[in-house]
Amino acid sequence: MASRAAMMQALLLAALAVGSARAQLHEKFYSESCPSVEAIVRKELVSALSTTPNLAAALLRMHFHDCFVRGCDGSVLLDSANKTAEKDAVPNQTLRGFGFVDRVKAAVEKACPDTVSCADVLAILARDSVWLTKGPFWEVPLGRRDGSVSISNETDQLPPPTANFTVLTQLFAAKNLDAKDLVVLSAGHTIGISHCFSFTDRLFNFTGKVNPTDIDPTLDTEYMAKLRGKCRSLNDNTTVVEMDPGSFKTFDLDYFTVVAKRRGLFHSDGALLTNDFTRAYVQRHAGGAFKEEFFADFAASMVKMGNADVLTGSQGEIRKKCSVPNH
Ligand code: HEM
Ligand SMILES: *[C@@H]1O[C@H](CO)[C@@H](O)[C@H](O)[C@H]1NC(C)=O
Ligand SMILES: *[C@@H]1O[C@H](CO)[C@@H](O)[C@H](O)[C@H]1NC(C)=O
Ligand SMILES: *[C@@H]1O[C@H](CO)[C@@H](O)[C@H](O)[C@H]1NC(C)=O
Ligand SMILES: *[C@@H]1O[C@H](CO)[C@@H](O)[C@H](O)[C@H]1NC(C)=O
Ligand SMILES: *[C@@H]1O[C@H](CO)[C@@H](O)[C@H](O)[C@H]1NC(C)=O
Ligand SMILES: CC(=O)N[C@H]1CO[C@H](CO)[C@@H](O)[C@@H]1O
């Protein structure tokens, strides 16, 4: 029979485990330990965007990829000597800005050594990237800790651009995100670019026949012709296109206008029209008349996504360099 002391200890450990699992992120987490962190991150980003404005989109996407694989724990930033990390997987081959994140972290380390996690730096960068491209501002809950594991094939938790509505909602539900979060966060595609190969299946090989008539019937035909003018073949892996043509550097509501016209770039964008709820949301926001409402929704969904499976308390570590675990 277990001794009373051992039982008490087991109970205590269980309580601690529950406590840490429930530990909350907090907007003022660094207010004592590193009050300048947000100012430092902002300064670095403003300076980088002045020469490389399209970095904003890359950083927003990077935070999304971080949160969807092992939670928002900075695992997307880790290098692996044998090329088996998340960043080595296909969906990450088009991520950009790793060197910049490392530089921002170095600046933060200089002011507050061993205090701010890479996962939090990335969350702040994503918020500032949206805000500095004229999108909403929100307070970012902080206090994430960094993981030390990054596994290439776990990126299968990321939604592929070919996904239909069923697959999208399943992958989002796995991160505690619902259909509203899906349609709201998809509007992140109002900024940034895509490589042709992320959607050329819709132009040349939608059902596996590999011929110019094998097209995605849900894509607007005029837009399809335009895209074919840019992406000349199925395997074009160098050409990039603007996801929200004409305003791809501005965080606005054009994404919904584009999707409503069946001009969403990915099959996954178009799939938002195949469900009553998400289609109604797209149609309500096409034209951009309810900007404040969408901005508030986007902020709320970003905070929700930023909570995905976070490490807190004594879990994980505060990485010194974002590309390598401390030990
Ligand atoms: C709903 C499922 C999603 C799918 C299937 C998807 C897929 C993709 C793909 C294929 C690209 C282009 C990559 C390339 O070829 O260069 C891309 C770019 C991008 N995605 Fe998503 N995405 C999704 C959700 C999100 C979310 C939730 C966000 C953020 C809130 C986001 C933000 C971005 C941004 C900003 C870019 C542009 C990146 C750049 O300019 O480098 N995406 N996405
Ligand atoms: C790659 O390296 C990691 C540690 O850095 C190790 O855990 C993993 O087993 C290695 N994978 C292969 C396929 O060698
Ligand atoms: C992922 O890769 C590891 C080895 O690196 C393997 O053990 C595991 O089965 C793989 N998982 C999937 C889902 O492919
Ligand atoms: C959605 O895609 C999945 C995976 O490709 C497929 O199994 C499923 O049948 C599709 N669902 C619909 C409604 O098309
Ligand atoms: C065409 O699509 C099919 C499945 O839809 C895929 O298996 C095949 O690899 C694609 N062909 C090329 C050349 O990409
Ligand atoms: C891009 O395509 C070229 C030619 O098809 C190929 O040699 C190259 O390896 C591809 N690059 C990537 C990153 O897939
Ligand atoms: C940014 C980055 O690290 N991209 C890598 C993605 O994975 C491929 C290999 O699959 C690498 O070649 C890229 O460097």
UniProtKB/TrEMBL annotation:
The keyword Manganese does not apply. Binds 2 calcium ions per subunit. Binds 1 heme b (iron(II)-protoporphyrin IX) group per subunit. GO terms for cellular component: extracellular region; plant-type cell wall. GO terms for biological process: hydrogen peroxide catabolic process; response to oxidative stress; response to stress. Residues 24-326 form the Plant heme peroxidase family profile domain. Heme b binds at H189. One of its GO terms (molecular function) is metal ion binding. The record marks R61 as: Transition state stabilizer. Disulfide bonds join C34-C112, C67-C72, C118-C322, C196-C231. Ca(2+) 2 binds at T190, D244, D252. Pfam families: peroxidase (PF00141). Gene3D superfamilies: 1.10.520.10, Peroxidase, domain 2. Its cofactor is Ca(2+); heme b. Its EC number is 1.11.1.7. InterPro entries: Haem_peroxidase, Haem_peroxidase_sf, Peroxidase_pln, Peroxidases_AS, Peroxidases_heam-ligand_BS, Secretory_peroxidase. It catalyses: 2 a phenolic donor + H2O2 = 2 a phenolic radical donor + 2 H2O. The active site is at H65. Ca(2+) 1 binds at D66, V69, G71, D73, S75, E86. It is found in: Secreted. Residues 1-23 form the signal peptide. Belongs to the peroxidase family. Classical plant (class III) peroxidase subfamily. Belongs to the peroxidase family. Ascorbate peroxidase subfamily. Removal of H(2)O(2), oxidation of toxic reductants, biosynthesis and degradation of lignin, suberization, auxin catabolism, response to environmental stresses such as wounding, pathogen attack and oxidative stress. These functions might be dependent on each isozyme/isoform in each plant tissue. This is Peroxidase. It comes from Brachypodium distachyon. The gene is LOC100826852.
